Amino acid sequence: MLKMIAGPMEQFQVHPVSWLPHFGFGGVDLSFTNASLWMFIAVFGVIAFLTIGMARAALVPGRMQSMAEMTYEFIANTVRNNAGEEGMKFFPLIFTLFMFVLFCNLFGLLPYSFTPTSHIIVTFALALMVFLTVIVVGFWRHGLRFFSLFVPGGVPGWLLPVIVPIEVISFLSRPISLSVRLFANMLAGHTMLKVFAGFVVSLGAAGGIMSAGAVLPLLGIVAVTALEFLVAALQAYVFAVLTSIYLNDAINLHEH
Amino acid sequence: MEAEAAKFIGAGLASLALLGAGIGIGNIFGNFLSGALRNPGAAASQNGNLLLGFALCEATGLFGLVLAFVILFT
Fold first, then answer.
1. What is the pLDDT of residues A113-164, one digit of tens each?
2. Is the reported ipTM for this assembly greater than 0.85?
């Protein structure tokens, strides 16, 4: 499969998959795109990982079951520590978010694949969902007392006109920071990989002694790919942890 | 000045934000290490906070990097 020499940003292009017919409705292109394809692959990957892992559920777990159980336990402990026992009601949401983001990030490291979470619209949709969940849960449980979230305890009265706007702004910046953090990490990492790959190609094509030097960027790619595996898992974890913390704010306001 | 040249200069300036990211990440891990060497038993329990702090610090640096990419490629 020989492709044209592409720049580092071509991997982020969303285009309809070539092996399905394009279709649209009313001038809007609704074809199945590579973004949708890789999101499907991530979701089926999660389903396969968990169902095959738990297929032969034994009291003493084998390897696959161990992995599935450790993932569950890891997120369950995170949610329980950050949001308390009440927060476990939101465990399905947080676990789904974590697994989806993790598998999207990890599958994006395969050659010729596409990382859905490297698009701000995907991460912003997830972050907006978390933000709206926090607001709805907060108002459902506490009514108008939810606004006491913006008044930290022990603040002298004359400081309130300064503190409350700052708190409101930092609350409203949560969906932005949550989405841009994930998006920027994926974008930067994958762009760096492709830039190093470009170096390998240009050094290799330079001929003579330069071609031997092409192994250096190649080692760089290996190291950065290892780093990207760490970053993929870490960013999924951070998304889950921050969601738990924000839900804790909504459920428990300022109590601990 | 042409738009292309201004783009490159702008992208270069925007990536200066990563300076802060580097300092912050070094700070986090340095403090973790000095704390862990004093109290090795309690080090493992703070692993979660360590990674969370690292990711939050990296995020602010990457906000600057994203701006650099936006300037450079649009």
1. 999 999 999 999 999 999 999 999 999 999 888 988 888 888 888 888 999 9
2. no
In degrees and rounded to multiples of 5, residue A252 shows phi and psi of -105, 10
CATH number, domain of B19, equals: 1.20.20.10
Q: Which pTM value belongs to this model?
A: 0.90
How many Cβ contacts (< 8 angstroms) between chains A and B? 43
Do the chains contact at B62 and A241, CB–CB below 8 Å?
Answer: no
Residues A1/A104, Cβ–Cβ less than 8 Å = no
Task: For the beta carbon of residue A77, count every other beta carbon within 10 angstroms.
Answer: 11
Q: Quickly count: other Cβ atoms within 10 Å of residue A134's Cβ.
A: 24
**Number of domains into which chain B is organized:** 1
Would you tell me which residues 9-28 of chain A have a C-beta closer than 8 angstroms to some C-beta of chain B? 9
Q: Which domain holds residue B13?
A: 3-73
| A83 neighbors A248 (Cβ within 8 angstroms) | yes
CB contact under 8 A, A238 and B52: yes
How far is residue B3's CA from residue A76's CA, in Å, rounded to a whole number? 51
Q: How far is CA A160 from CA A245, A254, B23, B62, in A?
A: 24, 16, 32, 32
Residue B70's CB is within 10 A of a number of other CB atoms, namely 12
Contact check, Cβ <8 Å, B62/A238: no
